[in-house]
Amino acid sequence: MVVQSEALLEKSLVNGLEEQGYEFIKIKNEDELNNNFKKQLEKLNNIDITDEEFDKILIHLNKGSLFNKAETLRDRYELKRKEGTTYLLFIDKDNWCKNNFQVSNQITMHGKYENRYDVTLLINGIPMVQIELKKKGLELKEAFNQIKRYKKHSYQGLFNYVQIFVISNGVNTKYYSNNKDTPFKFTFFWTDEKNKKISDLSEFSETFLDRCHLVKMISKYIVLNHTEKSLMILRPYQYYAVEAILNKALNTNHNGYVWHTTGSGKTLTSFKASELLSKSDKVDKVIFVVDRRDLDYQTTKEFNSFCDGAVDETENTASLVKQLSGKNNLIITTIQKLTRAIDNDRYEHKMSTLKDKKIILVFDECHRSQFGDMHKKITEFFNNVQYFGFTGTPIFSDNANKFKTTKDLFGECLHRYLIKDAISDDNVLGFSVEYVGRYKEKNKNQPDIEVEAIDTKELMESDMRLSAITDYIINNHSAKTFNGSYTGIFAVSSVPVLTKYYDLFKSKDHNLKIATIFTYAANEDDDGSDEHSRDKLERYITDYNKMFSTNFSTDTFNEYYIDVAKKVKDKQIDILLVVNMFLTGFDSKYLNTLYVDKNLKYHGLVQAFSRTNRVLDEKKKQGNIVCFRNLKKNVDDAITLYSDPEALEVVLMKSYKEYVNDFNQALEKMKEKVQTMSDVDDLQSENDKVFFIKSFRELLRLMTRLSVFTEFDFNDLNIDEQSFKDFTSKYSDLYESVKYGDKEKTSVLNDVDFEMELLKRDDINVNYILQLLKELDKSSKTFENDKKVLLETMSRDVDLKSKKELLEKFIENNLVNINDDNPFEVEFDKFLEEEKRKDVYALIKGEDLIEDKVQEIFEKYEYSGKLESSLIKSAYPIKLHFREGLKKVAFIKTQVRNIIEKFTWY
């Protein structure tokens, strides 16, 4: 059987798109692209455009970043003429099918290098979708990597208006939005409404690339994130959920809820639904209701990041009433404030004007307080109201207790996306659950915590048990979080137990940053303690203030909460001790570990576990759950309730022994061709090198899984630690040879997916290297060996490799100058300053730049992180032509970033 070639795949796709109504057009180069754009722009706007006017339009389109261009695309162009001003559309966002659709292939662009792109979809003459193909059998990431190279080497002009990339090898097809640094993890499969993947290219073309649907996605379902300055395209389950809500709200009087697993992006989904409803002529007000003050702040912040100024935060009930009676169509508030607005007589007059208006209530996290009297009061107040809920953990009869179910309150489930679906799609991570202290069997990795089936208050809260657990966390937190790359939360059973844990952490020797937050009652029961819980929290906040130079107290609890949330998200807190707070509704991509010493079940368990499973990078393979209680049955029951019995193997990661077995099997596969270091050196063909890269890449991924287990031991593997490090160096060197080799040379290796993130050793960082450097002694007999170890250590770390040559120069020329009168720090800083000055001067001389301007460029970049194109252009003594200016600016930006990176050591 003949494998379908890339050319045949491309031809089949183009033919299929023509059958769908796309006009085929042959475009050879950028000039032909621009000429076609002029014709299509005239056709869309039913106007003739002069060459002079078109040149101005091109200049207008060339301004700004990718994000700015996305805004420009969705805006109108003000064309001023003697007879009046005309506003030109670049895309018709309302009448999707009335845009002009074309398909082209093998368009050639000349940038740093010449590139030809596989298939381009043009809407109104603008390339808005770029499709990169690989023949069947090749990894999808090869196409992804190729697009990354195109963006570096040749994307310019109208190609900077690409909104969506599509990558396919025929059998697997994914899409993603155009951003500067999109990781492969943020590429998505399209699906049908029931989450069945549409991976075949021809089926994807017929559904996702359908002309009307494509413009609908670009117009309605790409969100411009103003905080991140990025484009966010909705995933299929988000799209189907919003469409279902719009259909219900605009065409029926029924309510409903969306069941999307925690961590799958409900905030973005709810924002898009709320935004689109607020723009409908059939709707007067959309009120997005959250159930806690902290979520009010968080949701408002996220909504405004999706659409700058989308909502004003309602600080109090009076402010809320003012907004409800004003022109705001989209309002965010808490359920408590909305209830007060309805109940309070002073607001009756203003609120009564809303009674008969068409009101849409969107409830965030509808598994919580919507089950009380407040929900009833709100929904009964409005005469013409519909309400929709979002939840990752609905209330069913199994876990309803005395409450009603989610279905009782909200009606039918409009769309569901379960945790097993999200894990399968790589949208969230699974969980690695360890039960510590369940067994009496003791070993070096288990603390002496004899819990088993005993669950008495006396035992569970004993000083000896809590102290042993504290020691366990201190000893293992580094391994769980990859030496502080991530953070943890410790969930405990009560405030009294939390205070015991906090004081234990404070009394022990460690370098972890511990913080806590909890609520207290004004008239709490006497627990035998001399200190009220508020006084304890005040004491802990004082510790926090000392740690972070802040000035909070229990009187500024809300501000304290917001600051704690920010510092957890920024990795400034290693472990946050909580009872209930932060276990629902809190998202931090850097949180990967949850320690549990409390009884959790059903929705509470899934919600708490799900704090850890946000997708981030290649090292974060799963959420780590460490249970100090026997919650095995509760875990199985919860996952079964919120997916199905078969989902257990999907949601819960393998055991340590299973991963050891997988690693040893992958090692045997690699050893079929590569058994020793010299075997790597002897690899001749690119195919053999690819075999080694792919084989060792799998070992790196498995090593990432293994290293977070507390029982991890290299003796369990069929390779010793030094040999594994040696192979890692070979792998890294091979990557470097491809990265810095001949870029114009077509190479199989260029398209191979190197997993370099997994090589970063967080314990070997700049501070570690500087400490080794300080200890180097030229007069020592071991100097040469010590220097070799130091430089080899740097070679193994991807981030430090670029600094190796600089450090080697310092050792050879400046180490001898260090003495009591001239300490290391002084000599090293002087060395860095002089070398940096040389590099900057070389850049000035090589490009014939104005020195003062270059100094200003560096100063502004070091201060603000921004590189201004206008400032860079002003550094050239002569005026640059447009295209030449673009290339020069890009070159200078790269050089400045490289120099700053090279000389940033502290």
Structural class: alpha/beta
Shape: globular
Q: What is the makeup of the main sheet?
A: 6 strands, mixed
Number of domains: 5
Q: Report the CATH C-level class of the largest domain.
A: Alpha Beta
Average pLDDT = 86
Q: What is the spatial order of strands in the main beta sheet?
A: 1-4-5-6-7-8
Cα-atom Rg, whole angstroms? Answer: 30 Å
- Helix count equals 36
The CATH topology of the largest domain is tt1808, chain A
Instruction: State the helicity in percent bands.
Output: 40-55%
Write the CATH architecture name of the largest domain. Alpha-Beta Complex
Query: Using DSSP, what is the number of strands?
Result: 24
Notable features of this structure?
906 residues; alpha/beta; tt1808, chain A; Rossmann fold; 5 domains; six-stranded mixed sheet; six-stranded parallel sheet; 36 helices; 14% strand; globular
Helix and strand topology:
Layout: H1 6-19, E1 23-24, H2 30-45, H3 51-61, H4 66-74, E2 76-81, E3 84-89, E4 101-110, E5 114-123, E6 126-133, H5 140-153, E7 164-168, E8 173-177, E9 190-191, E10 197-198, H6 201-207, H7 211-220, E11 222-225, E12 230-233, H8 236-251, E13 256-260, H9 266-278, E14 285-290, H10 293-306, H11 317-324, E15 330-334, H12 335-343, H13 348-352, E16 359-363, H14 373-381, E17 385-391, H15 406-410, E18 413-417, H16 419-424, E19 430-435, H17 457-460, H18 463-480, E20 487-492, H19 495-507, E21 514-516, H20 533-548, H21 557-569, E22 575-578, E23 591-597, H22 602-609, E24 622-627, H23 632-642, H24 648-651, H25 656-670, H26 677-681, H27 686-706, H28 721-739, H29 766-775, H30 783-795, H31 798-801, H32 804-813, H33 824-847, H34 851-864, H35 869-874, H36 882-902
Parallel strand pairs: 1-4, 6-7, 13-17, 13-18, 14-15, 14-16, 16-17, 19-24, 20-22, 20-23, 21-22, 23-24
Antiparallel strand pairs: 2-3, 4-5, 5-6, 7-8, 9-10, 11-12
Helix pairs in contact: 1-6, 8-9, 11-12, 12-14, 18-19, 22-23, 25-27, 27-28, 30-32, 33-36
